[in-house]
Amino acid sequence: MSDVKPRVRVPKTASAGETITIKTLISHRMESGQRKDSDGNPIPRQIINRFTCDFNGENVIDVKMEPAISTNPYFEFQAVVPAAGEFVFTWYDDNGEVYTETKSIAIG
Amino acid sequence: MKKPIAGLALAAALALPSVAVADEDAKLIINGEIELVTETEPAAHLDGALRSVRSGWTFRTTETQALQMDDFDNPGMIFVDQALDSFETVDGAAGKSCASCHEDPAEFAGLRAQLPKYNEEAGEVWTMEMYVNNCRTERMEAEAWGWKSQPMLNMNALISLQSRGMPVDVAIDGPAQSVWEQGKEMYYTRYGQLELSCANCHEDNYDNYIRADHLSQGQTNGFPVYRLKQANLITQHNRFRGCIRDTRAHTFAEGSPEFVALELYVASRGNGLSVEAPSVRN
Amino acid sequence: MTFTRRDTLVMGLGATVAAMLPLPATASTEDAIAAFTGGASVGTGGITLTAPEIAENGNTVPISVSAPGATAIMVLAAGNPNPDVGTFNFGPLAGSHEASTRIRLAGTQDVIAVAKLADGSFVQTSAEIKVTIGGCGG
Q: Which subunits count as partners of chain B given 3+ CB pairs below 8 Å?
């Protein structure tokens, strides 16, 4: 899908072992499958069904998403930062596409 | 038969007890840094029609207000990001992107605060969409974007964001005056089977409820707006269409001269409020 | 044309009143909880669900769930056509066992959060969220 764009906020630095707050947003229609078009035909479901956040390969959060998550899905959660490294955010679309974003964080 | 029924319906609808959870004293401070003016003295031309001028933000619930106070909570900002990409993308036969001439979107600071305004060369009042399409068709030799197409909405949000925090300041005199007068007349004209004018709700009844909606003053300092209902950005003309359609009238088209005039007049009612784009509303 | 009770009320009292009538919970809410807990009993306490009392628009309702010590929290919307909303699974680097998101609610209803705790037990909480539908803004 074109125009699916993530927007993620991760602090640039943290102290070792600090807990930080992460906010993520991604533009996606999240077509629930409940809507009908102007001819009365159901519009097929197409949503992001899973979101994960990993840090240096270890999992922070893994969200199973259903059609009741709003358009332009938003998540706010917390992560522990044991050392400097990279956060990888992954969104899985029903249609098989996978969207990712990465953010680095330094210890300081 | 029409008038009495419409009147009764309106009276019944407005008689609902207030269940508002909007905090009128809340301050709109974005990212903990940028404080916006959400209430101010009415402009002189209002001539006592409003006691004070209030942004739509002040009428929303605390949860909705909170969505606008952080650029990472504000869903409208993902569209600004998309426009940033589009700003750098070459489009059209001339082989240019917006960035080819306008190095940085920050160049547009102040523009949104004055729109819509009279454009000398064109000899008419222009809205944001008209400026963008003029550049696209004349200088980029690209196709015009549809008024409510996603790329136009996104670019509108990006350019409008550059004026965030600046006071709305549209000119109502000089060459724009006749258009302004036309807009003012529309504002006070009753439309549709329900025979409602903009003023009936937004001047005479703001803060009351019409059915389940908490009426605002209908200010446009927040446009383009991320509406929770559409889960997308919408423009002033989109809302004008919706409002007039809700009076059960055949409504004007987005981009029509009537709506340009109305956009100018409604903008002037908010002179002094801070530009909030992209704002978040219900 | 036959009118349901809801239709008759709407015609008589207006859509605003109808919007305030809670949507009936579906049987599948119970099934969803049972699937998550494997049929184990569910306690209360130690889980918080933060949600507005009145949602300004059912399309985008901000909620937060928190359950210290949880490995997973499942959220259900009892009155939606399909009650499943989502499940937050916390990994080893989760900084806390809480998360916020925005959800769609078809009408006034109970939103339920069920947490699986580290010791394998379950707790739940719920909140009624009023969703106003009908008004000139749509």
A: A, C
Complex-level ipTM: 0.95
**Residue A24, domain CATH:** 2.60.40.10
Structural domain count of chain A: 1
For tokens 């409602």, the residue is B196
Work out the burial of residue B139: count CB atoms within 10 Å of its CB; fewer than 13 is exposed, 13-18 middle, 19 or more buried: middle
Could you list the residue range(s) of the whole structural domain that residue A26 is in?
A: 5-35+45-107
For residues C51-84, one letter each, b for 16 or more C-beta atoms within 10 angstroms of the residue's C-beta and e for the rest, the string is bbebbbbbbbbbbebbbeebbbbbbbbbbbebbb
Residues of chain A with a CB closer than 8 angstroms to some CB in chain C: 19-21, 32, 34, 54-55, 58-71, 73-80, 82
Q: What is the pLDDT of residue C25?
A: 63
Handedness of CA C24, C30, C31, C33 (dihedral sign): positive
Contact yes or no for A60 and C95 at CB 8 A: yes
Q: What is the pLDDT of residues A14-68, one digit of tens each?
A: 999 999 999 999 999 999 998 999 899 999 999 999 999 999 999 999 999 999 9
A82 belongs to a structural domain: yes
Asked whether residue A27 is domain-assigned, the answer is: yes
Interface residue C129 vs chain A (CB under 8 A): no
The partner residue sitting opposite C14, judged by closest CB among B211, B227, B230, is B211
Q: What's the pTM value of the predicted model, to 2 decimals? A: 0.88
Residues of A in contact with B78 (CB under 8 A): 5, 7, 25-27, 72
**A91 located within any domain:** yes
Active site residues of B: 243
Task: Identify whether A40 is part of a domain.
Answer: no
Identify the band that residue C26 occupies on the pLDDT scale cut at 50, 70 and 90: low
Q: Is C48 on the interface with B (CB under 8 A)?
A: no
Per-residue confidence (pLDDT) for residue C135, from 0 to 100: 64
